[in-house]
Amino acid sequence: MPNPLRKLVPAPQGAGTATAVGGERPTGLSTRIHDVLHSNATLGPLFVLVLAVVFFSITADRFLEPGNLSLIVQQVMVVGTLGIAQTLIILTAGIDLSVGAIMVLSSIVMAKLSVDSGVPGLLALLIGFACGTACGLINGLLVTRLRLPPFIVTLGTLNVFFALNLYYSKSATVRGADMPDLLLWTGNTIDLGDTKITYGSLLMLAMFVVFAWVLKNTAWGRRVYAVGDDQEAARLAGVRTNRVLLSVYIVAGLICAVAAWMLIGRIASASPQAGGSANLDSITAVVIGGTSLFGGRGLVIGTLFGALIVGVLRNGLTLAGTDVLWQDFAVGILIIAAVAIDQWIRKVKA
Amino acid sequence: MTTSEATPILEARGLVKRYGHVTALAGSDFDLRPGEILAVIGDNGAGKSSLIKCLSGAVVPDEGEILLDGKPIHMRTPLDARAFGIETVYQTLAVSPSLDIADNLFLGREPRAPGVMGKLFRKLDRAKMRETAAKQMSELGIMTIQDITQQVESLSGGQRQGVAVARAAAFGSRVIILDEPTAALGVKESAHVLELILRVRDRGLPVILISHNMPHVFEVADRIHIHRLGKRIAVVTPKSHTMNEVVAIMTGATEPGGVGYEEVTKDAEREAPGDVDETLKPVKER
To answer: Domain containing B30: what range?
Structure first.
């Protein structure tokens, strides 16, 4: 039913491009693309991913080989998992610069406890998880109790956690050969025909499915969006916003610890210097995946696409024999394009 | 006070609220009767927002008491107010744009699915949410909204306000407070929201309407609470007073008194309480 009231409302910013009420919107091509992207923000990243896969399967013969595809997934495993944590926090209109530091600290805790202190593998793993969770709790308390901006809090804890990691590890790498099997499990593979898939890759994919479901189908998930959308509105609607924020940082810390487990499996050791670029890489995956840095908009599955886009790009350019610096160049352009598109998509909001 | 009045549902006695040196409420009273629309008006800085925040649990008054059905209640947060059946719709902060209508309606009190999915996995009862939301929206005559799964940001301003009012009406069992519900809306949309307010009252819920818009107030209000300098200085009805008279009382151009006043808090030796905004000089309307 066409809504005659539309015309009487003060025109929202960017009105005229799309007003999703009634059937009287203009039907230009850009408007239609805008509408589709607006109601489904992950279509963009998915399209880019498909485009990249098609492009590299033409330019590089070995790209589509199952072994190579499996390698890409392994390469994005750690960043993808951190990306889940980062997505949760960015959905609340925050940002977490400390995810990489939490991960490295947790991996060192797991490795040192089991190798140097003789703690059984399972217990060492659980204590590592507890370590990541505690780091998240610290971030969350600083954000909700001291009301500091997440950027500042996590910039601080990034340095604190990383320093603790160097202190505890004495800046020395723990060799995988000394570790219990459980800590290396994420690097083990299942054979599917001639393709090997690591348990870590499957664990990452499973976590994406779980968090996509939780965000969509639980009250907690809805509240995460509401808090990111407009924290004051959510509070006045009766959401205990501080409790939601705190829980998000705690869960993010735990996810970082799971990423730590994957990191050990991936590099078959625990290095205090590993994952240095992981903080920014996780933000890159989230942003390219179509989640808005302003909060309240985006899907966790988009982050998987974002991580895969970066993985495919780096892998494909490597296969094509391109210098590494052009990989960074391409990723940089992607980030700017993704945010530019996001701003365009968000224009409908009055 | 006359004796024929019904017992107020919501009542406040001698509310005081200070912010540092600024006295926002200087011993204000308040009465809301069953089944009425009570408009609360006052100049900027008169303290009506502070009054409403006290009644909706958003701030705790320094002194004075709030009574619900004659019994004193203590509210420390908006959640407490909701537990007492007092729902508030705020002017601009009404809804979460990226959530759909049903999610917005149940935000903060989402029902869980029955069985193991709800208990163990905390799954939402989406079917129930959508059904209730659709029922609520159609009962209140917000008919232009076709799809309950529409994101709220795709709705017009009036429809968003409609969603917020519907949420309050769905859960408010005693009182609904509307803070400037038409302030951001166009003429026709305002008319829809006013109709909505009348419909809510007709369903038996008393409504407190805060508004700057005199024509809107006179269109729907049963009684008008006039706030000035941190206090209630008069309660009038649209029948007993004209718009100009009400504005004159509100701005201090005339002192309340005489025939037709239902209640008057006469306070001749009333001192200007501290730094209450006095920038708005009496307007010589008449």
So the answer is: 16-85+172-264
Pair of tokens at residue B127: 């079917």
Name the residue facing B99 among A20, A226, A235 (closest C-beta): A226
Terminal-residue alpha carbon distance, chain B: 29
Chain B interface with A: residues with Cβ < 8 Å: 58, 78-79, 82, 88, 90, 93-99, 103-104, 107-110, 112, 121-124, 126, 144, 146, 150-151, 153-159, 167, 184-189, 192
**CB atoms A8 and B186 under 8 Å:** yes
pLDDT for the residue numbered B283 = 40
Taking only the tens place, the pLDDT of each residue in B142-155 is: 655 667 778 888 88
Number of structural domains in chain B: 1
B203 in a domain, yes or no? Answer: yes
Tell me how many residue pairs between chain A and chain B have CB atoms under 8 A apart.
108
Mean of pLDDT over chain B: 81
Q: With respect to residue B228, please indicate whether it lies within any of the assigned structural domains.
A: yes
Q: Show the CA angle centred on residue B91, arms to residues B89 and B97, nearest 5°.
A: 85
Note the pLDDT of residue A153. Answer: 96
Report residue A127's pLDDT band, with 50, 70 and 90 as the boundaries.
Answer: very high
pTM above 0.80, yes or no: yes
Q: In this structure, is the dihedral angle defined by the CA atoms of residues A6, A8, A11 and A17, taken in order, positive or negative?
A: positive
pLDDT at B50 over 80: yes
CATH number at residue B228: 3.40.50.300
Domain ranges of chain A: 42-52+67-340
pLDDT of residue A7: 36
Contacts of A218 in chain B (CB under 8 A): 121-124
Provide CATH code, domain A42-52+67-340: 1.10.3470
Question: In terms of CA atoms, which chain B residue is nearest residue A226?
Answer: B96
B130 in a structural domain? no
Query: Is the predicted pLDDT of residue A283 greater than 90, yes or no?
Result: yes
Query: What digits encode the pLDDT tens for the residues B198-252?
Result: 988 988 899 999 988 899 999 999 999 999 888 898 899 998 888 888 988 888 8
Identify the CA nearest to A284 among candidates A258, A325, A314, A261: A314
Mean pLDDT, chain A, whole residue set:
87
Pairwise CB contact (< 8 Å): B158 & A39:
no
Determine the Cα–Cα distance for residues B86 and B78; give it in Å rounded to an integer: 9
Question: Which of B98, B128, B138 to mutate: most A Cβ within 10 Å?
Answer: B98
Is residue B156 assigned to a domain?
no
Chain B residues in contact with A237 (beta carbon < 8 A): 95-96, 104, 107-108, 167
Q: Report helix, strand or coil for B189.
A: helix
> A213: nearest CA in chain B?
B123
Give mean pLDDT, residues B165-187. Answer: 85
| The two structure tokens encoding residue B112 | 């869980």
- A136 close to A249: Cβ distance less than 8 angstroms: yes
Q: A297 contacts in B (CB within 8 Å)?
A: 98
ipTM over cut 0.85: no
